[in-house]
């Protein structure tokens, strides 16, 4: 720890009450989402490529309060310890800033999310196109505002495209939360904290292929179907936004 | 790839690029002979600098600083601590500088960059020794409670002159800092006075009604220069830093008083006249940075 104190004294946040909000009665007919969106409406997405000049490719994504940066490095030499491999390797890492969450965190790497990101992207990348080498995908969550993993995955596929890595298709990811009787798409942190179940789909819309599907919590079959339809629809719309972002970047650089 | 269908002027561009990679030092020295740098800057001029305050919604104070492509995001979170016995009426500041793997191809996850630790220490030394912030201002209840300001600076894009950008973002974050209004509750803990409480029944008198802003005695600004042969290059890029190794960092306060000066080794010796030239360049830079900071603050007030 830096600072004058040498060893940092124990501190506490003066606002512990904010996280103990009473649970909103979600069963009510007149329940509204914390940001006044309708249930099937995604947050406005802002995407931009080329956020980091020193990376081979990079992208910045902002969905409401969720803000992430993804950098792609490589293809570059694999670590010495790695065995020979005919196909390329993918290496993913997600970390959080100390101010990403309301309490002052440690800002450490998140191994669980990193492996999920790896699994979500693996199927979309043509690994045969860079044998013996590694592509590194590093993500930093600047602010966590809910649906962090889907945002990171979508942003990462945009960064891969920006780096010129061969892909079968762009990967878009959207999650849906189940709150009582309601399904809400693209949940914010508050909704995620009291959700009954969550479903996330990561897919390549133009090939109609799903690279990752995760369902947690309690789901009935009709609900699952409805949620999947919702996610797939939102994914293809998100993919359009991502595609136009890439096109804009190219036309901007030509001018 | 582009060279396959490239026209003649593209192929000559490729040659320059190849020369740049194969003989980086000679490439740069050709430029220096003509008193210009590869990015068309003069030797003594710094890159375009921008500053945006309040970039992080969840923090009490934050700023995003850009010098050329070098990008820094600084955020301050205020927490409460019990002051030490030696200084019962002083708060504290914990400064940390992070270089996440996204910022540069040289940083790998799991292994913190050496440069990050060096800059972390350099920043806290500079800020504490300058007296820019009076730690007594951070006191809440003498001997019982004081603020601990966690200042975290993240490098989002590392393209040279990291210390300058980090210091600029830190100073800007402190000038953007809004200290929350707090009161002492019955358990002896400090709690935030929420908006509703202010309007409705006020249970406890706030302990820091007046001290909502942190007073900065004299903001600090810095300029890093590279010394190579008898050239002085202000505000180097990452490429320049990797080729020419001698750097000098000058930190001045807003009345141009010298606060600190770092010259961490390097093959070029710094004579008095060279140091004086560096300080003169830094003075000019302080003027620019003061304008940048003032503009950012007034932009914030308009919104």
CATH architecture of chain B: 2-Layer Sandwich
Largest sheet of chain A: 5 strands, mixed
Number of strands of chain A: 10
Which fold name is given in CATH as the topology of chain A? Ribosomal Protein S5, domain 2
Unreliable segments of chain B (pLDDT under 50, ≥5 consecutive)? 1-7
Give the termini distance of chain B in whole angstroms: 47 Å
The CATH H-level superfamily of chain A is GHMP Kinase, N-terminal domain
Give a short account of the largest sheet of chain B.
6 strands, mixed
Please work out how many helical segments of chain A DSSP would assign: 4
Structural class of chain A: alpha+beta
What percent strand of chain A? Answer: 25-35%
Q: What's the CATH topology label of chain B?
A: Ribosomal Protein S5, domain 2
Largest beta sheet: strand ordering of chain A? 2-3-4-6-5
Q: Tell me the overall shape of chain B.
A: elongated
What portion of residues of chain B belong to β-strands? 25-35%
Helix content of chain A: 25-40%
Q: Report the mean per-residue pLDDT of chain A as an integer.
A: 87
What is the CATH top level name of chain B? Alpha Beta
Region (Disordered) (chain A): 1-30
Protein name (chain A): Exosome complex component rrp41-like protein
Family (chain A): Belongs to the RNase PH family.
Domain Exoribonuclease phosphorolytic (chain A): 41-165, 169-230
């Amino acid at each position: 720890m830096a600072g004058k104190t040498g060893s940092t004294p124990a501190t506490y946040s003066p606002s512990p009450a904010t996280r103990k909000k009473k649970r909103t009665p979600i069963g009510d007919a007149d329940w509204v989402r914390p940001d006044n969106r309708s249930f099937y409406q995604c947050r406005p997405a802002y995407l931009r490529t080329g956020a980091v000049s020193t990376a081979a490719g990079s992208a910045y994504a902002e969905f409401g309060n969720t803000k992430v940066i993804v950098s792609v490095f490589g293809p570059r030499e694999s670590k010495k310890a790695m065995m020979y491999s005919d196909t390329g390797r993918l290496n993913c890492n997600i970390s959080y800033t100390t101010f990403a969450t309301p309490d002052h965190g440690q800002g450490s790497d998140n191994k669980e999310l990193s492996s999920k990101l790896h699994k979500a992207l693996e199927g979309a990348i043509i690994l045969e196109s860079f044998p013996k080498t590694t592509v590194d995908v590093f993500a930093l969550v600047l602010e966590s505002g809910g649906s962090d993993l889907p945002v990171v995955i979508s942003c990462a596929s945009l960064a891969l495209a920006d780096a010129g890595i061969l892909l079968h298709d762009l990967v878009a990811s959207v999650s849906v939360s189940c709150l009582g009787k309601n399904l809400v798409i693209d949940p914010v942190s508050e909704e995620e904290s009291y959700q009954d179940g969550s479903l996330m789909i990561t897919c390549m819309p133009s090939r109609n292929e799903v690279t990752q599907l995760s369902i947690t919590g309690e789901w009935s079959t009709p609900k699952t179907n409805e949620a999947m339809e919702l996610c797939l629809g939102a994914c293809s719309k998100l993919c359009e936004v991502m595609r136009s972002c890439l096109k804009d970047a190219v036309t901007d650089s030509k001018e | 790839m582009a060279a396959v269908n490239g026209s003649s002027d593209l192929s000559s561009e490729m040659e320059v690029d190849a020369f740049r990679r194969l003989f980086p030092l000679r490439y740069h020295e050709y430029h220096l002979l003509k008193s210009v740098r590869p990015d068309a800057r003069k030797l003594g001029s710094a890159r375009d600098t921008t500053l945006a305050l309040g970039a992080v919604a969840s923090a009490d104070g934050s700023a995003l600083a850009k010098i050329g492509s070098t990008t820094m995001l600084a955020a301050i979170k205020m927490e409460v601590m019990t002051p030490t016995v030696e200084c019962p009426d002083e708060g504290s500041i914990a400064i940390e500088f992070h270089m996440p793997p996204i910022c540069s191809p040289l940083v790998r996850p799991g292994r913190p960059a050496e440069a990050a630790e060096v800059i972390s220490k350099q920043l806290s030394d500079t800020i504490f020794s300058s007296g820019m912030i009076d730690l007594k201002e951070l006191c809440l209840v003498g001997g019982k409670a004081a603020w601990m300001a966690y200042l975290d600076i993240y490098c989002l894009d590392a393209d040279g002159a990291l210390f300058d950008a980090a210091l600029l973002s830190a100073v800007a974050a402190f000038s953007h800092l809004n200290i929350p209004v707090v009161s002492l509750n019955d358990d002896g803990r400090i709690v935030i006075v929420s908006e509703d409480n202010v309007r409705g029944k006020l249970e406890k008198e706030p302990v820091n009604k007046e001290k909502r802003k942190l007073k900065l005695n004299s903001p600090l600004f810095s300029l890093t220069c590279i010394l190579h042969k008898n050239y002085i290059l202000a505000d180097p890029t990452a490429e320049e830093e990797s080729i020419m190794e001698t750097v000098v960092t000058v930190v001045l306060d807003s009345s141009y008083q010298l606060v600190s000066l770092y010259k961490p080794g390097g093959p070029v010796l710094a004579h008095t006249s060279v140091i004086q030239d560096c300080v003169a360049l830094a003075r000019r830079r302080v003027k620019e940075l003061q304008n940048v900071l003032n503009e950012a603050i007034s932009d914030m007030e308009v919104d």
